[in-house]
Design brief:
By secondary structure, this protein is α/β, with parallel strands linked by helices. Helix content is 42%, strand content 19%.
Length: 345
């Protein structure tokens, strides 16, 4: 019986404003390097043109560092995985073009990865010297980020079905835009989480959407939040400064309630007790606490990813690339990135 060959994959993630490269051997991550972009802070959000330029500056140093940290030789790399979409087209083009050049120069295959699948499969990343328990199939995944809010049934590594999703804004977008209205710097989500810890979550009430089924909506919440602040500031120009912690705590509680109510409904409808969370907003401490509480109450087997694997990172692209590699799913040099992709695409 022949021994199974180790598979080493270099992965590239460049869907938004983080340039990341990782090296994985089978399911064990050897390195995961991320370069952020502070240039967007003064604009209160990601500027696509500036993002793609920064990717061009960062990608070679980041890849070089990832390969060195992994302690692998270039000729040991069996394939290169890259994010094809969804994301900012200019940013995706940088990663895709680099992957093409690297694959040609090294004479290795390319593996395309759906960014959203990557977030879900971050739960399967293993780290050398650590035993990490992964969820069993089928499981539910609450995917929450700046661009997506979805409930997904995951039947296998590459077999996923979206059963609920936002019909307008995503939860992360609601955090950031409400923070901007309050005059908080970008990105606002982590700052709201920090301030909320000192506040009273029941002090203020904000509207919750009445959307049928398992879909989400956050645009109404943003509007009610804007009108609430406008009315309060008319009476007291210092209202935000004097009540910042309570405002943040109340807003965060509202968003988390909206997210959890639909997830609870999905778990009841599907009968699935294996529950996971993924995406940038899964780093939110209030959401983590809320999920942990519901899991105890409802007998869920809950999985929350490490902080390093919640935001955009190449480790999640690497693990997804590994599963696609093992199925022989490769792409050629004609591949082009997509700004929009569905999770099972």
């Amino acid at each position: 019986m022949t021994e199974k060959k180790d598979v080493t994959i270099l992965a590239i993630e460049s869907s938004c404003d983080d340039t990341s490269a990782a090296v994985i051997r089978n399911e064990s991550i050897l390195s995961n390097v991320v370069a952020g972009q502070k240039v967007h802070e003064e604009y209160g959000g990601v500027v696509p043109e500036l993002a793609s330029r920064a990717h061009q500056q960062h990608i070679i140093p980041v890849v070089d560092k990832a390969i060195k940290e992994a302690n692998v030789k270039r000729e040991e790399i069996d394939a290169i995985a890259f994010t094809r979409g969804p994301g900012l087209l200019g940013s995706l083009l940088v990663g895709t073009s680099f992957a093409k050049g690297f694959a040609l120069a090294s004479n290795i295959p390319m593996v395309e990865v759906n960014h959203l699948q990557g977030h879900v499969l971050a739960h399967f990343i293993q780290e050398e010297g650590e035993e990490h328990k992964a969820p069993e199939f089928p499981f539910l995944c609450l995917l929450v980020s700046g661009g997506n809010s979805q409930i997904i049934v995951v039947r296998d590594h590459l077999d996923m079905e979206v059963i609920g999703q936002t019909i307008d804004d995503a939860a992360g977008e609601a955090f950031d835009k409400c923070a901007k209205v309050m005059g908080l710097p970008y990105p606002g989500g982590p700052l709201i989480d920090k301030l909320a810890k000192q506040g009273n979550p029941d002090r203020f009430q904000f509207s919750k959407p009445r959307i049928a089924g398992l879909d989400y909506s956050f645009s109404g919440l943003k509007t009610s939040f804007l009108y609430f602040l406008r009315d309060q500031l008319k009476e007291n120009p210092d209202f935000i400064d004097e009540n910042k912690e309570d405002i943040c705590a109340s807003l965060q509680k509202t968003i988390i309630d909206i997210l959890l109510n639909k997830l609870i409904k999905a778990a009841k409808e599907t009968g699935i007790k294996e529950v996971t969370v993924a995406g940038g907003v899964s780093a939110n401490s209030g959401l983590r606490d809320g999920l942990t509480e519901e899991a105890k109450k409802r007998g869920w087997n809950l999985f929350i990813p490490k902080f390093a694997y919640t935001t955009d990172n190449a480790a999640m692209i690497a693990i997804t690339g590994y599963y696609r590699y093992m199925k022989g799913e490769f792409v050629d040099q004609s591949v082009a990135p997509y700004a929009r992709m569905v999770i099972n695409g």
